[in-house]
Amino acid sequence: MVFILLGPPGVGKGTQASQLIDSFGGEHISTGDLLREACRNQTGLGLKAQKYMNDGDLVPDSLILDLIRDHLGSIDPKAKILFDGFPRTIPQADGLDDVLLNVSRRVDKVVLFEAPEHELIKRLSGRRSCANCGTIFNVYFSPPKIEDECERCGEVLVHRSDDNPDTVRHRLRVYQSQTAQLVEHYSSHSAVLKRVSAMHSVDEVQSAFRAAIGMD
Ligand code: AMP
C-alpha cells in the first residue's frame, strides 16, 4: 500500500505517520527529514537544498525526484509506504506515478489533513523535535516531561529554524500557491482522496486517519 499524507505545514502529518508506523510498520518517507539529514551531512543535495529550506521555499522538483528514486531503491520494494510532505507539486505527483509504475505500484490513498491557519501558526511556533530520533513534541499541546529533552531517546529538542513566524507565514503561502492544487489533482484523477480534520487530539485524528485508509 502507498499512502500520501497531504496538508499544510504544522497540521500534524509527521506525528500521525509515526504513530501509524509504530502500530503497523512500514516506511515513513518524509522528504523534509531526508533533506534535513542531507543538510546535516553536507552532501551535494544538502548544500543545494539548504538555501531553499532556510527561506521556506520549495526545493526544485528534479532534486526531490532524484532523492525519492534513490530512497525507494534502498527500501523493501513491497513495504507499506507513507509519504509525508511529498509530493508538493503536480510535477512531483506525476514523477511519483512514473516511479511507482516502474515497480508495478500505485498511490492507494491520499489523506488530506485540514486545520485553520491560526492553528497551524500556533502549532509550528510551539513545535520542538528531537534532532536524534525525530520525535515531535509541542510546548502547548504535547510537552515533553522534562523541558527540551526527548522522552524517547533523551536527546536535546530543537526548534526548527524555519518554524520562526516570518518563514512560517511564507511556507503557508507556498503551500497555498504550489501544493494545495494537489487536492484538486487527486480528487479529479482518481477517487483516492480522503479528508481528515486535524482539529482534535492526536489519538482522535489517528482514529480518523486509520478509518480513512481502511486500517481501523
Ligand atoms: P517539511 O519538514 O515537510 O516542512 O519540509 C521542510 C522544507 O523542506 C520545506 O519548507 C521545503 O523547503 C523542503 N521540502 C520538503 N519536502 C519537499 C518537497 N516535496 N518539495 C520541495 N521542497 C520540499
Order of strands across the biggest sheet? 2-3-1-4-8
Rg from Cα: 16 Å
Shape: globular
* Tally of helical segments: 9
Number of domains: 1
* Number of strand segments: 8
Derived structural class: alpha/beta
What would you say this structure looks like, in words?
With 216 residues, the protein is α/β, with parallel strands linked by helices. The chain has one domain (2-212): P-loop containing nucleotide triphosphate hydrolases (Rossmann fold), CATH 3.40.50. It is 49% helix and 15% strand. The strands form 2 sheets. It has a 5-stranded parallel β-sheet with strand order 2-3-1-4-8, sandwiched between helices. A 3-stranded antiparallel β-sheet has the order 6-5-7. Helix 2 (31-40) packs across helix 3 (44-55) and helix 6 (117-126) packs across helix 7 (165-179). The protein is globular.
Task: Provide a short characterization of the protein structure.
With 216 residues, the protein is of the alpha/beta class. 49% of the residues lie in helices and 15% in strands. A hairpin with a 5-residue loop joins strand 5 and strand 6.
